[in-house]
Amino acid sequence: MRRETVIVTLVTFLLVLSTICGVWLVLNRPQRQLPIPSRITLGRSNGIGVVYLYGPLSVSSDSGGFMARLRGTDAIVEQLKVLAKDDRVQAVVLRINSGGGSVAAIQEVYEAVRNLKAHGKKVVASFGDVAASGAYYVACACDRIIANPGTITGSIGVIFSVGNVEGLFRKIGVKVEVIKSGKYKDIGSGYREMTEEERGLLNAMLDSAYGQFVEAVKTGRGFSGEKVEGLAQGQLFTGAQALEAGLVDKVGSYEDAVKEAAELAGIKGEPEIIEAPLPFFRRLLGSITESHGLRFSPQELVEESSPRLEYKMW
Predict the structure, then answer these.
(1) Catalytically annotated residue among 85, 180, 183, 185
(2) CATH number for the domain that contains residue 140
(3) 220 lies in a domain?
(4) How high is the pLDDT of residue 270?
């Protein structure tokens, strides 16, 4: 009996140990991230936080449950809030490689960046391949913007797209009946032509969102209204062109952005890098799903295809 107990205990111990090792390997597997100088040492106060804004920026849903994790811009906003309250962090670099996203999501990240500055943090935007439309909107809240000479940026404006399959449905003999509570309830429907009155309502909505974008650029870059209007027709620029137009402050790399942040914050010597931590189960679930390529749920695919106001290139 004693021998069996010892065997069971040993097997249980090995199972627990293997589980712990497995979790550690998942959480600490190599990431495809930019090289960083070093990790933060506890007690230091010369830290620079780094937050990554990659891909389409939107408020994305999760499946829920006790291992639910924030996705999309909710996760970005959470990271910015953590860094805002971290006394070790003197400055933050936003590494941006995005063509923008939905209007509300962009504005929430923009406000989170402003909150960082309200907490006394210096913020520098570092542009990668592309930092256009809504991604540029977010950068306007930063103290400095640094782009690579070939970065695609600009595209200041708003877009709202809907498809129209009425002609196709007519050809194949499909008719859609819509019962609605008001005459505008199905505005933007893909099953019929849009009326001029509806087009006017949508244009007014776009004008409002466009005005908010223009105001962010004016405030962040110190432009006059006339200058913004000339740059805010949806046109794209390289980083070098954006520098000439005053849309960015310097051309340079990610490392240059880290140095700029250190200088703004008065950090002497090599800065330490802090990445905002996420709760344990969110990190674990995120690592597992991303390692298996599970990046979008069916619900998220529906959300991505839904009509919405967007600050994005096209």
Answers:
(1) 185
(2) 3.90.226.10
(3) no
(4) 83
Residue 87 counted as domain residue: yes
Share of the chain above pLDDT 70, in %: 70
- Reported as a pLDDT band with limits 50, 70 and 90, residue 169 is confident
**Domain presence at residue 25:** no
Q: What integer pLDDT is reported at residue 254 of this predicted model?
A: 96
Three-state secondary structure readout of the chain: CHHHHHHHHHHHHHHHHHHHHHHHHHHCCCCCCCCCCCECCCCCCCEEEEEEEECCECCCCCCCCCCCCCCHHHHHHHHHHHHHCCCCEEEEEEEEEECEEEHHHHHHHHHHHHHHHHCCCEEEEEEEEEEECHHHHHHCCCCEEEECCCCEEECCCCECCCCCCHHHHHHHCCCCCCCCCCCCCCCCCCCCCCCHHHHHHHHHHHHHHHHHHHHHHHHHHCCCHHHHHHHCCCCEECHHHHHHHCCCCEECCHHHHHHHHHHHHCCCCCCEEECCCCCHHHHHHHHHHHHCCCCCCHHHHHHHHCCCCEEECC
Query: Number of structural domains, the chain?
Result: 1
**Catalytic residue status for 133:** yes
Which residues, in sequence order, are bridge partners of residue 114? none
- Share above pLDDT 90 across residues of the chain, in percent, rounded to a whole number: 49
The residue among 308, 260, 275, 266 whose CA lies nearest residue 46 is 266
Look up 185 and say whether it is catalytic. yes
Catalytic: which of 133, 155, 189, 312? 133
Band of residue 11 on the pLDDT scale cut at 50, 70, 90: low
Least confident interval from 26-35, 75-84, 93-102, 211-220: 26-35
Residue 149 belongs to a domain: yes
Structural domain boundaries, residue 112: 40-157+233-312
